[in-house]
Amino acid sequence: MATDALDDDVQGGRAPDFLALGLGGTSMMAMLWAVAMGRRAVGVEMRGDPFLGVHWNIRADFYHQLGLIDQLMVERYGEQRIPRRGDSDKLFRLAETFYGRETRAGDIVADEIIDAFDVEQHIAGTIHHVEFIDDRWRDGVPHRAVSLLTPPAPPDRPDAALIRTNMSEVLDGPSTFQAGAASVLVMLRRYLEKVEQLDLEGGFEPRVRLFTRHRVVNTPDGFVRQEDGCLGFRVEALQELDYRGKFVRIRRPGSRVIEIGVPELFMIAQGFHSTDAERLGFKQVDVAVDHQDGRGPVVAQADFLAGLVEALVGGRLRRRISSEFDEQGQEYWVRQIAVGHEEDPEVGWCLVQVPDFKSFDPIREGLLPEGTDTQAPEYFAAYDTLVYDFYAKHVGDILEMPTEEIKKLQMVYGPKLFTLIERVGADALLAPNGVVAGDSFGNGHFLTSGGAMTGMVGHSWRVYEYYQARDAGVPHQQAIRTLADKIKEDTSCWLHVSAKEYSEAVPINFGAERIAQITALGGIPASARAAAIEATRRQRHSLIPLDPSDWRRVFLRNGKVYAAPLPELHAMHPALRGQQSRKKGARATIAVVAPDLQPATLRFIEGALSQPGTKLGLITQGSIDALPESVRERLAAFVGVADVGDAEQIVRAVGQMRKALGQPERLLGPTAAFQVPLAEARERLGIEGMTAEVARTFADASLMRQRLAEAGLPIARHARIESVQDGMAFGTEIGYYPLVVKPHQGTRARHTYRVDTEEELRLLLERLQPTAECPLLCEEYVEGRECTLEVVCMSGVPAWFSATRFEPGLLEIARHPGAALRITLPREQDDPADPLVRRMGFAALKALRMDAGLSSLRWLRRPDGTPLIADVTARPPVGPILSLMALAHGADMYRVWGNAAVNGLFAPIPRLYAVGAAFFRTQGKGTAVAAVHGLDEIVRELGDIVVQVQAPRAGQPWSNAPDGDGFVLLRHAETAVVDEALKGIADAVWVELGERAAVVPA
Ligand SMILES: Cc1cc2nc3c(=O)[nH]c(=O)nc-3n(C[C@H](O)[C@H](O)[C@H](O)COP(=O)(O)OP(=O)(O)OC[C@H]3O[C@@H](n4cnc5c(N)ncnc54)[C@H](O)[C@@H]3O)c2cc1C
User: Fold this and answer.
1) Is 452 in the pocket of ligand 1 (CB under 6 A)?
2) What pLDDT, in 10s, does the model give residues 629-674?
3) Minimum CA distance residue for ligand 1 atom 21
4) pTM here?
């Protein structure tokens, strides 16, 4: 009956007890309370049927309130005057239409349920999965903590005793139901319409009158102020039309103004921005929130992309917080939310926060040339692409689906960029007989799932209380004052919980208890704050104006409906799964290039072979006979070559393995010296992996330093030396000694020299004879503690790290050949690689375009505390460091390497111990071990800390390498204990050297 035909017929519409302007959830619930309390209610709505395209998470209080309305209606009016469902005799009970134990959830059409065409389903879905994913980086690397929380049990039946009247309590509690906003609103609207129809047809004074497609007259005549300040209203019928490409509403031609008169109570709830409240002088101000991050109070504002993806998110509330980084590496926390509907594969509302630095500017992002007209369709198309790509990636992260799969899905809305700004009014009282409520009074953050709750459960309940007060004899003035104050109080509660959404990580709509659980698991204190920069946001706004009314428009992206259950939540952070698994079926085919079959090389081959389903072909200069049986029998192919340093030979060898292997998916080699030919072969064969250009940068010491310097990273002054003169000129330029001379390629300390005078430099260069083909690198000598940083990268993202420190440095040992080296891998993350060093290391790898794998950086801690990069290699560390890493983390690092290289997966490994390696000082001259002193005693004394001893044997040749020939490996939970024990070994143990002939035992 709410049709245009009623325009002139205002039967029962005059001077109502309650007038609602705007018929969203707040107003309709308020009207229902008014009617349930025996009042006449009139509603005026500018649009037709409810249209709101969002999906709500709903607290159980709403269901209990519907139950109470049902009860009050029957008690007051008797069953005869309760609307029916369709043509049936079935009473239209709001609570059971919304949810019931006997009916089920699913893909519904609200009207079909209301009209009892569909008697098996109800409108709401219940929440079965409450999940929180904390993907914020920790200690500079990706980290994941997943909290799976117990969802609240849905109530058996509505129970008025369970209605909470304190909005903080309501919002602090978790949501029980999920429902399409439009379905809920249609349910409320149809109920009101049916009451109206029942009364008009039954000849009763209508309890409800609805004027849809109407508004308060758009001129000052719309409001009629009485002497006592109370307001009367005049409304007009509307016609909506497309006028020359613009959407306009005008008074319906030929229609007459309707005199509503003066209601006892009116309520304006017209959404975010109410023109009527504004016309009455109501003002909202931006809400400022102090995040305690040093910036003071700032406007509570955030940008989101919203979209409806057709995927079976199901009865699920999944929230995620993740780290995003701007070009300067500054970290931002961004949130995403996925809301579904039980058994409905077409509901996957995904909202994705946009970090402040993201501008979606096609010119800045390099999609369009400088100067492109921002009004051109190309500009908008490029902007649209950037927005969609960003959205699809984040939706993929929250739904655990590859971005490409997300892009195949149908979207009936969005992604649409909108800005949320919290705003609130000072007083909800507009006139002696009216208030403003719902979003029109104030709005918090929608991620709290609190807007509809605040309006429908909070504000509308205050109308119920108003009528209770009136019935109890409370004067109107006093009752309406309380109503306005309570509206403000409810909204303040929403703003209070919303404030946390801007700065704290954990989601408020999970309930206080669950929040405590999540905080404990994430490991990042709740008081921690993310960075935020306001400037770019302003720029983004000026690029494409945002219009919140776009919520009301529908955009369609054709595609498929994903009706299968969502993929399981992965234990690993998405950044650690950057490379898709290379396995086809159960198999991953790889070719490994190895110059030799020494034990260290074999360990890498075994690391790759240990991955289930690996089919491995080996290309080597070594003989197959050198392979242990256990490895040989697991090889799918073996090809011997004369020189693995020749890309051509590698390509040919891969060709020869084709029959057994097909095209390998990966071409790997653990040895630094052969990365360039390996990369060249990869390129020629079209196999993914490090490119030749990147490999050359790592191999060329001066090119690498150039890249690091360009990235603004601290390195020593250096020069490429192609002749003795070059070197002497560099010495002169630096002007002081000592200097360091090393090979231009490779980083072995064994070939690194320190020269203390000009004369020493000359003698060394004359001996080494650098040329253009075989250059050297000359560097200033930098004093400092030598350290390393080992980093696992996945798809260019640093995924994990560990660090070691040396005592004394390798150059120092080169200077004092007898000295003993000690290496510690401390248990503490910050020792020695504090956050600054880690950032420096990660930035270096980024500058050198390290994509995937385990790399090793050597760096120095200068006496003034500042770090400096000495070298970067794109392959696993040499010497004992890999063994130390394995010991400290209780993991087989070769398998870890294999998993990353073969499967593209890396699971961060917690550090369990501090570990150390002690090498031995020597005395005497000679090339062989004469005797080892003090070892047995100290090993006995140290006891369980010692995990491995490699004791040199008398007569064994002595290599003089600082990290070779003999060592002790130690492990303990405390770093200080390891350091102390290492020192004890260095003091107590010494190797006596002698000439081989003299020391070889018989
Ligand atoms: C993405 C998103 C997700 C959300 N999720 C949740 C959630 O999970 N849970 C939750 O509780 N809340 C949620 N909300 C918030 C919730 O939708 C709103 O807070 C709620 O709809 C506000 O209700 P309202 O009655 O105040 O106004 P609205 O629902 O906006 O209704 C206002 C009505 O007034 C009409 N109107 C406007 N101007 C006039 C006029 N001049 N004359 C006549 N009629 C007029 C409009 O047409 C409309 O029908 C979400 C919001 C968004 C944006």
Assistant:
1) yes
2) 989 999 999 999 999 999 999 999 999 999 998 999 999 998 888 8
3) 452
4) 0.74
